[in-house]
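FORM 12-B: Structure-to-Sequence Request
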């Protein structure tokens, strides 16, 4: 692990590019360093040698005294390489390059950036940036950024932002909410020090209690996740991801590659390490505020109760909870009876629980505590519009403290209870939707599950050679054999080269059959017209072979039995360029990419993750046996998910695996098509 102390707690600082002109950024940078109260030595570098802002300057980097830990570089881009070489020669330990005009611009900028890195690596000088807004460290009383008028509140939030401008927005929003910042670094182009490395340092930083990240791209996903895993349960991490559109999914070779795009994999990765991944700015700051207000208590399950004296908004809260993957379960009958004895006869005691405006204030505490004590409930969202009843807030605060089950509130036009909630450690959000998403952040920040080692398949020498030597899609026969080695069962079929052989195979299998083209590079058979269903006799087989060969130029045909009706599923995996192997499971068949009902997880899987993939999206309804079909047995699907996860994790040359459709009925799970793609090099 790297020591970033020279960046966040330097003993002496050099500032390059300072100017006597107050309109220049170099002047502002030096002014910020001085006015922040930094107590170490400050060495402005200016060729004139004249004092600036009352500080003596040195004319060049070479004239700096020994012992400078950190250099803040605010020079025009062409002057930066020479300055970095001079800083390295002078023994400076870290440099923040605020200058832009490097890798974010063009090929020449990328070349100059590579030169900076080479110099730094050779000398041991650590670089932050370029193209960034600097570094801030409250414990060191250092504002080495272009930002002025920063929030003065003390706090333990540390910020890593790839965007300088968004870093300024984070400062402004946190200050507006009365939240204090401990450390901030604008990471820019990440030429050397990257987000994962900063995260590693902040996890062990005693001044940091929560880490907020604005990320556009990670360089080292496994390193980021390892650091986040160390933080889980100790220091919450909240991330906002920019650049979620994924043009690359259009070039994916399989359905799995198309469905498991960048954003989906980031979500899976963050969930595995319990990083709270926000989808928008508002949610990002709400999550930070909530996790600061509730630093330790975490829901034991995704099940919450909505408690209100205001009916309508509570319905919106419940709707939002279920839409966001939470559960609002009905309370048990004993709890309902107890609530009916405490509340007016027209109160709703299911869930949401509407105490009603007519509730006797003296009975609120007992009713609220009964809801918190319900074993199926892991926390509460409290809703109050316009009924400023102090007993309501006091009851929620007391029950949350007594049970350890966290509560989040939405209030409107109720200043007294709003103040009591906040004083009692219950965060208050300005809408029911935002309150529910804030509670979800607490669930997302729960301790991580243990990883489960999925078994690696034992491959025959032939399959081993195929995996090690094939470039691009494996021939269908080899793809099938590879998956069979993992325990995937395929339907009865034959691979033939002529129409007459196809007829013979169909007669052995039994009509009707399915005919498919088997051609090199044919990854999506249906879209290419490479599948003919319900082929009923020999003449139809011959005609289908002629049509398939004309449409796809197939050299071979796959003759398959027609599998009995069942639920069509997709099971696949891919190797993500940032995070590594992932596994995908969801609704399959020809409408896979239309429905987009899939779940993504990192491989190897965490404990219970395969089972959870069966319970997300529309899958519970599909697996229950729609339209009179047999309910699907879960154990067989869980075994197959683990098997494919084990294959992609064990075989680094495999980049995509696609079993679609996988037809399931009862305990019978049969694959009728598969695609396996190996790396091109």
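FORM 12-B RESPONSE
SEQUENCE OUT:
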């Amino acid at each position: 692990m790297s020591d970033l102390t020279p960046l966040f707690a330097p003993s002496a600082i050099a500032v390059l590019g300072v100017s006597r002109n107050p309109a220049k950024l170099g002047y502002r940078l030096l002014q910020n360093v001085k006015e922040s109260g930094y107590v170490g030595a400050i060495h402005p570098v200016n060729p004139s040698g004249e004092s600036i802002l009352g500080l003596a300057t040195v004319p060049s980097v070479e004239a700096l005294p020994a012992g400078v830990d950190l250099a803040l570089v605010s020079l025009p881009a062409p002057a930066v390489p020479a300055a970095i070489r001079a800083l390295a020669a002078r023994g400076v330990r870290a440099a923040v390059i605020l200058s832009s005009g490097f890798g974010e611009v063009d090929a020449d900028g990328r070349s100059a950036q590579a030169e900076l890195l080479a110099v730094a690596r050779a000398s041991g000088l650590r670089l932050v940036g370029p193209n960034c807004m600097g570094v801030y460290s409250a414990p060191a009383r250092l504002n080495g950024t272009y930002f002025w008028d920063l929030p003065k509140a003390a706090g333990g939030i540390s910020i890593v932002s790839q965007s300088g401008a968004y870093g300024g927005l984070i400062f402004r929003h946190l200050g507006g909410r009365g939240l204090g910042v401990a450390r901030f670094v604008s990471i820019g182009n990440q030429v050397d020090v990257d987000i994962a490395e900063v995260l590693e340092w902040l996890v062990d930083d005693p001044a940091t209690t929560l880490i907020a990240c604005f990320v556009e791209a990670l360089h080292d996903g496994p390193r980021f996740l390892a650091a986040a895993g160390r933080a889980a349960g100790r220091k919450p991490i909240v991330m906002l991801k920019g650049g979620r559109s994924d043009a690359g999914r259009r070039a994916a070779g399989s359905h799995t590659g198309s469905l498991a795009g960048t954003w989906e994999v980031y979500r899976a990765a963050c969930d595995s390490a319990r990083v709270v991944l926000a989808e928008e700015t508002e949610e990002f700051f709400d999550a930070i505020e909530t996790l600061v207000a509730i630093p330790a208590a975490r829901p034991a399950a995704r099940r919450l109760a909505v408690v209100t004296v205001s009916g309508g908004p509570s319905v919106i809260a419940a709707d939002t909870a279920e839409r966001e993957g939470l559960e609002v379960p009905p309370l048990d009958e004993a709890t309902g009876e107890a609530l009916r004895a405490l509340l007016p006869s027209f109160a709703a005691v299911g869930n949401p629980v509407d105490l009603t405006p007519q509730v006797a204030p003296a009975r609120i505490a007992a009713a609220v505590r009964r809801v918190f004590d319900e074993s199926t409930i892991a926390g509460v969202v409290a809703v109050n519009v316009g009924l400023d009843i102090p007993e309501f807030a006091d009851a929620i605060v007391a029950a949350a403290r007594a049970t350890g089950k966290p509560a989040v509130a939405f209030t409107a036009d109720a200043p007294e209870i709003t103040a009591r909630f906040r004083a009692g450690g219950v965060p208050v959000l300005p809408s029911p939707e935002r309150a529910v998403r804030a509670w979800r952040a607490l669930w997302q920040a729960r301790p991580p599950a243990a990883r489960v080692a999925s078994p690696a398949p034992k491959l025959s020498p032939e399959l081993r050679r195929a995996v090690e030597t094939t470039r691009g899609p494996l021939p269908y026969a080899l793809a099938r054999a590879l998956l069979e080695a993992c325990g995937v069962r395929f339907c009865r079929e034959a691979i033939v080269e002529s129409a007459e052989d196809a007829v013979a195979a169909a007669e052995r299998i039994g009509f009707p059959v399915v005919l498919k083209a088997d051609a090199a590079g044919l990854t999506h058979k249906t879209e290419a017209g490479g599948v003919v269903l319900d082929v009923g006799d020999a003449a139809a087989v011959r005609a289908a072979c002629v049509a398939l060969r004309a449409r796809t130029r197939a050299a071979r045909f796959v003759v398959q039995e027609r599998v009995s009706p069942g639920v069509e599923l997709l099971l696949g995996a891919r190797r993500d360029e940032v995070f590594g192997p992932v596994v995908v499971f969801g609704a399959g068949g020809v409408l896979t990419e239309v429905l987009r009902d899939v779940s993504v997880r990192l491989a190897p899987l965490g404990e219970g993750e395969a089972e959870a993939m069966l319970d997300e999206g529309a899958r519970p309804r599909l697996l229950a046996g729609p339209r009179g079909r047999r309910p699907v047995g879960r154990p067989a699907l869980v075994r197959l998910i683990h098997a494919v996860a084990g294959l992609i994790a064990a075989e680094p040359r495999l980049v995509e695996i696609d079993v679609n459709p996988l037809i399931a009925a009862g305990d019978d799970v049969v694959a009728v098509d598969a695609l396996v793609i190996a790396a091109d090099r």
